[in-house]
Amino acid sequence: MSEPFSVRVEVRGYETDSQGHLNQAVYLQYAEHARWSILRHGGIEQSKLLGHGVGPVALETNIRYLRELRAGDLVDVDCVFEWGEGKTFRIRQTVKKSDGTVSAEVASVGGLLDLTERKLVKDPREVFKELATDPGVFGL
Description:
By secondary structure, this protein is of the alpha+beta class. Helix content is 23%, strand content 38%. It is built from three helices and six strands; from the N terminus they run βααβββββα. The chain has helices at residues 24-41, 46-51, 124-131; strands at 5-10, 54-65, 74-83, 88-97, 102-114, 119-120. Strand 5 and strand 6 form a beta hairpin. It is elongated, with a radius of gyration of 16 Å.
């Protein structure tokens, strides 16, 4: 497992609901933004994935909401890859206020889809190692 990669986001007013806190669906967008950011940070652009004939897929996502976020809050969204054996991997994410208060925990299971075969690649770690300029970002 690698050290968490983090991206900062400011909660925008239009992302809040009638109660004045961040809409639950926006947490998914923040998590997705952090995942694409870590890919780019490690040297894997979307065009590189497509050129290799693969694309990341989310197979399962669980969000645990702990503290509300309000418009103007600055949050850091961490992202850590966890590798096992087989076709899938886990991504653990934490959404924290700038003061360190954990607002949400996001746990995902993902894979890499072979865009021709429409099946998961057998070993996504090997594809990440091949495509990344810095595999260490992904804990490889």
